[in-house]
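Give me structure tokens for this 339-residue protein.
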Amino acid sequence: MKTIIHSSILLALASSGIAFGAATATTGAVGYETIALTSGFNFMGIRLHENPIAVGLLDSATAAPNTVTDAEIDLAALITGGKTYVLEIQDGSGIIQEITTAGAGTSIVTAANLTGLTFPCSYSLRPASTLDSVFGSTAATCKLSIGGGGAGGADQVWFFTGSGYTKVYFDQFGGPSEVEGWYNFDTGASVPGGTNIIYADGFVISAASAKNLTISGDLKAGPTELNVASGFNFAGSVGPVGMTLDTAYGDTTAEVTAAGLAIGGGGAGGADQLWFYNGSGYTKVYFDQFGGPSEVEGWYNFDTGASVPASTVIPPGYVISAAAAGDIKSGVPSYYTGL
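Here you go.
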């Protein structure tokens, strides 16, 4: 049985050099994070994850169809129809792929062509988090405030659709048949408890009242590639502790550029912006290679021009206002390595 470690203790133990276990499909660094929700909007992300069901070395990839293969493991046998899994490439690129389809025998089908990887390549495969796995699948186990034949008094989970939100809540006897479960706030339609929550994507909890939300799971110890569209993107910070502007993206022009963020050149024009919800609006920051009166490279406030410390903590969920579509790599603190 795994020892469950609180995120604040995880930080202290990691700093002292204590390891939590080998990288196998059944052991690793696990813990729990308690997040204080305020009444109203809370920007969220999943920062502890489902346990991997396979880890190892990928031997090869194909294109058309796009597949990857681990000759030592029958990957196809691990894929259950109707469920989503996350393939994590562990070569420092942070590449992740949502997996829904088994290949033949030792292969699985990927959305992208991964033939450009260097093989053999380390990977892990884990189930995607879902509404049920994160928040609970019954009225008795749900960690959020629930409805009683309607959404009144219930917390709502909002998923950004690109132009609006899909809002869901848990009802202990919702709908015409009075069946407990997840429901769409706007339409009243039943929502599958297996609805995916991919950790690279942020979301919002509109809380009916202040409360503590505890999430437990496995620590992801490497970077994550975020695929962003031009404009608004809801992102999750992926790691439970130590996630700052510096540890996620860097504090020099070279580091931030290598992470894939577009930077400013004496102003915010053309730069990607990170938006952190502050309770009534957003604190917007960007990286400038020679910003401010003294022309010092660093992080700056988009609205005021003031310098922003690289140690600024990135919350569980935030917005990336991207100047253009592309891939951005969000790192983790160095002490995650080996956990």
